[in-house]
Amino acid sequence: MGTFRHPLYNKCMCLLRRLFALILLLPLGLAACASDPPPPPRVAAWLGSQSGRVFIRVLAVEPVEAMELTAPDGRVFTPERLSAEQRPRSNDAPWRPGIGLGGSAGSSSGSDIGIGISLPMGNPFAREAPRASIASEAQFLLPAEVLALYRSRPQDWRLELLFPSRATGLQAPPLAP
Fold first, then answer.
1. Which of 13, 33, 63, 108 gives a 20 to 30 Å CA spacing to 86?
2. Residue 25: how many CA atoms within 13 Å on its side-chain side?
3. C-alpha 133 chain-centroid distance
4. Tens digits of residue pLDDT in 30-86
C-alpha cells in the first residue's frame, strides 16, 4: 500500500522549489547590479592672480591625464600645467583589533578581572565604500579677448577630459567671482 500524502503536499513542494530557485538566482541578480559607473566629475574654475590665467579643478575617482578647453569658434586651448593629487577618504582607517580590560568588585563576591579582544567585522549590508577623490588642476593661459569671451559666455565653451579609462566632455564651468 502507498504512503499517504496530504493534499497540500504538492503545493508546498512547488513553493519550496521556487524558493530554492530564487535563493540560487538572487546572488546573480545582486552581482549584476554591483558595479556602478563612476560618478560624474565635479568641476570648478577661477581666475588666477596674474591676468589671463584660468585655473580649472576637476574632482573625480581617476586622475585627469589630459584636458582641453574648446572655444565656441573651435579654437582649442591646452593647459600650461596639469597636476593631480589624491585626497584621502575619511574612512581609510587601518584595520586594528581592539583590546579592553575590565573589572568588577562586590562586597560579597570578591573581585574579578577580565580581558577582551574585539575584531572589526564590518557591515556586511553596507554598500561599497566611497571612492577616494583625486583633484586634478589645470592652468590655462588665455589671451585677453578670449578671456573676455569666456567670462561673458562660459556655457558656450566645452571642457574635454581624458581619464585613464574613459574620455568625457562637458560644459565648461563659469568663473568663480
1. 33
2. 6
3. 7
4. 666 556 677 888 898 888 867 788 999 999 988 999 999 999 999 999 999 999 887
DSSP notation for 12-48? HHHHHHHHHHHHHHHHHHHHHTT-PPPPPPEEEEEE-
CA torsion 30→34→37→42, rounded to 10°? 120
- The whole-angstrom separation of Cα 163 and Cα 37 is 14
Q: Which residue has 496530504 as its cell numbers?
A: 6
- Model confidence over 138-152: pLDDT tens digits? 999 999 899 999 999
Domains plus CATH for the chain?
42-91+129-171 (2.60.40)
Closest by Cα among 5, 1, 30, 55 to 124 = 30
Amino acid (1-letter code) at residue 51: S
β partners of residue 162: 66, 167
